Amino acid sequence: MLEALSERLGAIFDRLANRGRLSESDVAEVLREVRIALLEADVALPVAKEFVNAIKARAVGSDVFTSLTPSQSVVKLVYDELVELMGGAASRLTYSDAPPTVYVMVGLQGSGKTTHAAKLALRLKEQGRRTLLVAADVYRPAAIEQLKTLGKQIDLPVFEAGQGDPVQIARDGVAEAKRLGIATVIIDTAGRLQIDERLMEELERIKAAVRPTEILFVADAMTGQEAVNVAQTFNDRLGITGVVLTKMDGDARGGAALSIHRMTGAPIKFVGVGEKVTALEAFHPDRLASRILGMGDVLTLIEKTQNVYSEQQAEELATKLRKSLFTLDDFLAQLRQVRKMGSMSDLMKMIPGLSKALPKVEIDEKDINKVEAIICSMSRRERERPEILNGSRRKRIAVGSGTQVADVNRLVKQFEASRQMMKQLGGMKKGRFPKLPAGLGR
Question: What's the predicted TM-score (pTM) here?
Fold first, then answer.
């Protein structure tokens, strides 16, 4: 996610850190490089110009030129403007005072509307809001079946009426939600490979028929500047109220995230960060700005942790660490829990300073699978007492897990080293489990 921009800006600010006080020409040079970095990240030209001009205006008369740490002053200006560029504060979904609340998902074909309709429904379910999914995409082959499959996966009802009139299907879906007493309706609409008049007219008729609480534009972040252009067209015709950016985990440039709000006025509400139905995150401009500038994202890391760990689990783990009772079974359980939080590489980037300290470290998920296979090939006694693993046992485990004896040796050695380190750092006491700041829960 915006990895290329992060690397470019990091290199610029590293050079600044080696200088003393900055002159106006120094700042001008930095801003030129920042503008180039933004354009290379696929940020729209008008947005890049406006961004740089805003920083320049704020730098004049500030303490940038006299500060003892001028590089920090420039970084702070860039951070503040990045946050402002992406909307300033996180934007939450709006709910209707007279249920059901209706959300209409719109966008081009292939942007991920159907999948993200289900992701959003699951997120609302976790917050205690039951949702009815409505299959109003009657043109794309298998769209209805896909939504029904996803509905079954997240245990939520799907309303469908075959290949009928999408406007009538949307209207009937809302009526069905009222009959069943379901608080929320998410309507999955049709897309096209490109915008055409027929598509826009159909969406306008759906909007008039169901009077949605929100119209959420689903944009593929990997299409870059084109996503911004399409968003503008949808906004002009429908008045979109929010944006869901998909495939943010697969685009190193990601300039759409920095352009789409400024160009449309619609806030980014969610980002899709993976293929799993759970891979949907609320969008926080300040957190993304922090990650872009290599400052980490501790709040999101805490949220992810608390989604998979209860406080009781954390206390039990702390006790095992203190008493040296941590086994390979525990290690495997922790590994599986952490994997629920996302890729290891992404989690590392959320820890402040770690991405700079270990810029080229990439954790291969295949290596994690290998570790899991090795541990699963051990007997319960071997997992509890890895010190009994002699040569013949290690050979048997390697054969059983489809790995090499060297892989088994490496895992055992790393586990022992980790256990010693965790024992030293395991002085956690009750009440030390991280709490979310007020207002940052689900």
Answer: 0.67
CA dist., res. 399 & res. 325, Å (int): 28
Q: Which residues contact 180 (CB under 8 A, 6 or more apart)?
A: 132, 157
CB crowding 355-379: b at 16 or more within 10 Å, else e? beeeeeeeeeeeebebbeebbebbe
- Structural tokens at position 272: 């899709």
Q: Roughly how many angstroms between the first and final C-alpha of the chain, as a whole number?
A: 23
Q: Output 91 or 185, whichever has higher pLDDT.
A: 185
Range of weakest confidence among 35-44, 201-210, 420-429: 420-429
Considering the domain boundaries, does residue 37 fall inside one? yes
b/e string for 394-427 if b means 16 or more Cβ within 10 A? bebbbeebebeeebbeebbeebeeebeebeeebe
**pLDDT (tens digit per residue) in 397-425:** 999 999 999 999 988 887 877 666 655 55
Whether residue 265 is found in the same domain as residue 345: no
CA distance 53 to 99: 45
- How many distinct structural domains can be found in the chain? 3
Q: Please list the residues that pair with 340 across neighbouring strands.
A: none
Which residue would you say has higher pLDDT here, 328 or 395? 395
Say if residue 278 is in the same domain as residue 306. Answer: no
Q: CATH number for the domain including 53?
A: 1.20.120.140
Report the Cα 18 to chain-centroid distance in Å.
34
* Domain with 272 in it: 101-294
Q: Are residues 35 and 139 in the same domain?
A: no
Q: Are 251 and 318 found together in one domain?
A: no
Question: Which amino acid is located at 411 in the chain?
Answer: L
Does 76 share its domain with 172? no
- Model confidence band, residue 110 (pLDDT cutoffs 50, 70, 90): confident
- Answer yes or no: is 187 within a domain: yes
User: Do the domain assignments include residue 90?
Assistant: no
Q: Kindly tell me if the per-residue pLDDT of 353 is higher than 50.
A: no
Neighbours of 391 (CB within 10 A): 9
Asked if residue 95 belongs to a domain, the reply is no
Q: Are 388 and 381 in contact (CB under 8 A)?
A: yes
Q: Are residues 175 and 253 in the same domain?
A: yes
